[in-house]
Specification:
InterPro entries: 4Fe4S_Fe-S-bd, 4Fe4S_Fe_S_CS, NADH_quinone_OxRdtase_chainI. A hairpin with a 5-residue loop joins strand 2 and strand 3. The protein is 25% helix and 13% strand. It has a domain of 104 residues: Alpha-Beta Plaits (2-Layer Sandwich). It is elongated and about 70 Å long. 12% of the residues are buried. The protein is built from six helices and five strands, in the order H-E-H-E-E-H-E-E-H-H-H.
Length: 153
């Protein structure tokens, strides 16, 4: 009983001090961490269709369709299935995939969250993001200083 009263006293002390911790979300955008994992950004120009992202995805979020000559025909992404583990971004040899800081996406059904490469070009939260520039806070952890040599240690 004493522990419950102490917890209630601590809660009331913080609740009544006048500081707010919430954000008026639609009017004011919340501040997200630089390492936040949000919606995928896929760059068709960088993609070499190696299918490593499809193979490493634990939820089958990414599905790539190839033709007989191993040319990529279709890149399908199901945002609703994604667990944002970032494995697809890490395995991509050409930095064609990026998990952005965007968390604002909705859909009425699960089919509204499945996109092919043509639909991805028209999604508003998909434009104006350069994968390499957006990844800069993270890249310094594994890219060496100076002439930007890759440091694999």
């Amino acid at each position: 009983m004493i522990g419950a009263l102490q917890a209630l006293a601590t809660t009331m002390k913080h609740a009544l001090n006048g500081k707010t911790f919430t954000v008026e979300y639609p009017e004011q955008a919340p501040e997200v961490s630089p390492r936040f994992r949000g919606v995928h950004k896929w760059n068709q120009e960088r993609c070499i269709w190696c299918r490593q992202c499809e193979g490493i995805c634990p939820n089958d979020t990414i599905h790539i369709v190839m033709d007989e000559d191993r040319n990529g025909e279709q890149y399908n992404l199901h945002i609703g299935q994604c667990i944002y583990c970032r494995l697809c971004e890490e395995v991509c040899p050409t930095d064609a995939i990026l998990l952005t800081q965007n968390f604002e996406f909705t859909g009425d059904t699960k089919h509204d969250l499945a996109f092919n490469k043509e639909q991805l070009k028209n999604v508003p939260w998909y434009k104006d993001i350069d994968p390499l520039e957006a990844r800069e806070p993270d890249r310094d952890a594994w890219v060496g200083e100076g002439d930007r040599e890759v440091d694999y240690q």
